[in-house]
Amino acid sequence: MIAWLGGERNVISLLIPLFGICLLLIAGRVTETNRARRYVLAGFALWFGCRVVIGLEAGTLVSFPRPIGLIAALSLLIGFLSLTLYGLYVLSKGSDPIASRLAP
Fold it and tell me: In the prediction, which pLDDT does 28 show?
């Protein structure tokens, strides 16, 4: 089953974003991050998806055509970076500018 995801190295690299997701779920109950958690949590989920696509590309279970796997991994990585950076921006500002514009 580990070979499906490209070996031990890819499975270990999957643990990093999974640990981040678990840490954010636990930290959200302890501290209030002023809505930044939703963006950073979604960013970690996209990073996990990117690592899964890369692992499946290297593994034996599913083989994506080369441009589709590369485009999927790059788009997930760009989504991770943008959501994480925006979450850090919201955390530093103390409020979510997008959500405050939508509220009446």
Answer: 67
Global confidence as pTM:
0.76
| Segments in the chain forming alpha helices (H) | 8-30, 36-58, 66-93, 97-102
Torsion sign over Cα 44, 42, 98, 96: negative
Q: Determine the Cα–Cα distance for residues 73 and 53; give it in Å rounded to an integer.
A: 6
The angle that helices 36-58 and 8-30 make with each other, rounded to 10 degrees, is 170
The CA–CA distances, whole Å, from 73 to 9, 18, 23, 24 equal: 17, 17, 23, 23
Question: Which CA distances in Å does 12 have to 1, 17, 55, 92?
Answer: 14, 10, 11, 31
Mean pLDDT of the chain: 80
Residue 52, pLDDT > 60, answer yes
